[in-house]
Amino acid sequence: xxxxxxxxxxxxxxxxxxxxxxxxxxxxxxxxxxxxxxxxxxxxxxxxxxxxxxxxxxxxxxxxxxxxxxxxxxxxxxxxxxxxxxxxxxxxxxxxxxxxxxxxxxxxxxxxxxxxxxxxxxxxxxxxxxxxxxxxxxx
Length: 139
Hints:
Oligomer: single chain
Shape: rod-shaped
């Protein structure tokens, strides 16, 4: 199975593990066979399992209420803000580029879904955002 070399008190020992069943190991040291019974059973290493909690609900695209004059631009996915193309007080039209969000090594352009005036920018360049976080508010 496996070969090892040990140096004990300036002497070299060649150890070859022949078999391992339960807590008994058959090995050979410098050509001499030995059967070694372990005091405790060797625990096997388990591969960790990644467990994620289920998402509460899928995030839907921003729906603008036609009666409301306010709109919130939220992060569709977690990521990092690469650039912000507007500032507070800017007038934007529908489909104008507001910011670029990097997620999973891809750049995602976030555009305005309605015309309006930028009233608040809640993020900064280089900031990490979570899914559903409000990034920009329009009026």
